[in-house]
Amino acid sequence: MGVFLLPTEPIASLDHHLATETGGLGVQAAQRVGPQATIELITRSGLRGRGGGGFPTGRKWSGIAGQVGSRRYLVCNGAEGEPGTFKDRALLRANPYQLVEGVIIAAFAIGADEAYICLKRRFEHEAALVTRAVQEMQSAGICTDCTVNIVLGPDEYLFGEEKAMLEVIEGKPPLPRWFPPYEHGLFATGPQEGWEAGPRRARGGSDGSNPTLVNNVETLANVPHILARGAEWFRSMGTAESPGTIVTTVVGDVVAPDVGEVELGTPLAAVIDAVGSGVRSGRTVKAVFSGVANPVLTGAQLDTPVSYEGFAAAGSGMGSAGFIVYDDTACMVDAAYRLSRFLSIESCGQCPPCKLGSGAITEHLERIETGAGDDEDVAEIERWLRRVTDGSRCYLATEEREVVSSVLRAFPQEFVDHLEQRRCPQVEPRPIPKLIDLEGGHATYDESFWRKRPDWTFDP
Ligand SMILES: Cc1cc2nc3c(=O)[nH]c(=O)nc-3n(C[C@H](O)[C@H](O)[C@H](O)COP(=O)(O)O)c2cc1C
Ligand code: SF4
Q1: Residue in 344, 341, 359 with CA at minimum distance from that of residue 431
Q2: Which of 8, 23, 92, 364 is the most buried (most CB within 10 A)?
Q3: Which numbered ligand comes closest to the C-alpha of 216?
């Protein structure tokens, strides 16, 4: 199912890509109008980052292009670690060439010295597709004066966090550094070089801050289409504040989990039906999480438009539009426990309130879920929720606060039932949807995650 980003048949060669309606035209248009006009066009289109935050892409590009006297880098974020999200891998499988075109255009627009496309090491198939696409485009002379590197990173959730991703590119573990990439970019020699102290490494006589643009795969995949067809064409889809389409993933208690492209502004209920084939007969939607980064939406909020402003008005966030659906047989205390456990395991521990708080919240949720909890467990969760984000370097701690506090707010009766009955009233726990594959209506989750320990080693 696609509008323009997801072709019905995969694009398997450069010739095939160039034979499509707009294949190769985006790079040509950018080279014709020049960097400044390219950035202005992306700004006018209203494209917003698809990695979760929805930051205006043109504004990000012009901020980096405007910094003088430095080397600049481009990083394409293809870590896709958010539970319930598979859209970047679906895009790479469907057409890796449109992404590489987007990378070439973005690097040209901001004057980047080099570009890095980052994927997880475990995404072997997608890495092979994108490597071939880069090689074919280089041999065809489409990308001659640009260096595109492919970096394969670890499986950790934090690899996708942009400050941690820069550390990984520099050969270090995925521990978020302090400053954002536009202030303290790749190989920067500014005030703080990441977790490990090291020698100062001035490169190329720059001022050392090396502002770095980080954009998500889907964000960059949109770029060649906008260059080829114009800002007005892009704005003719979606809403005024969220133009274009969005590639969504729908998993959980649905008939056929899948990835699909819809216009922004489509109601959530219609997205669950169109992309995931709806919930099973006789069942109703109890809750929908957009990844693990935003407050839960309840079954009463399914008319929420899938757009940045639509989710914000509903008190949540669209994230990367990976929707995890729970039907009326699911236990929301168990859901909160499993999502909290995911975040506490993946927390890196550089900020003690994040690691200790998410760990404590997870333990109290487990006690309540298994019937061993009492009022003091709820009170402890609430105390930690007020402190878990103290001094946090990255957004993960806020995710913990938002997800758990929203479940407490939206489903208080489920907590009361667990405390009173001293057991979980539901029978079937749902696994955490950390996706390994999603094909033909079937989702494969990472079974090994259950064995992952807080120090990122695994139980045998
Ligand atoms: C814990 C954590 C994990 C993240 N994982 C991803 C990811 O897998 N892919 C991604 O594109 N962005 C991820 N992000 C967001 C990135 O930090 C960054 O905002 C994004 O790549 C920017 O691209 P955009 O402007 O195109 O949205 C993550 C953020 C956090 C806090
Ligand atoms: S907020 Fe949590 S995950 Fe982020 S850097 Fe601090 S400890 Fe690590």
Answers
A1: 341
A2: 92
A3: 1
Q: 293 C-alpha vs ligand 2 centroid, how far in Å?
A: 14
> Which atom of ligand 2 is found nearest the CA of 397?
1
Q: Mean per-residue pLDDT for 233-238?
A: 98
Q: What is the mean pLDDT of residues 193-215?
A: 67
Mean of pLDDT values over 408-415: 98
Cα(32) to centroid of ligand 1, in Å?
Answer: 31
Q: Within 6 Å (CB) of ligand 1, which residues are found?
A: 49-53, 55, 77, 79-82, 157-158, 160-162, 214-216, 219, 394-396
pTM beyond 0.90: the answer is: yes
Mean pLDDT calculated for residue range 250-272:
98
Residue pLDDT, tens place only, 140-179? 998 777 799 999 999 999 999 999 999 999 999 999 999 9
CA trace torsion 125, 250, 324, 266 (10° rounding) = 130
Q: Does residue 193 register a pLDDT over 90?
A: no
Cβ of 345 below 6 Å from ligand 2:
no
Q: Given ligand 2 and candidates 159, 350, 401, which is best to mutate, with the most ligand atoms within 8 Å of its CB?
A: 350
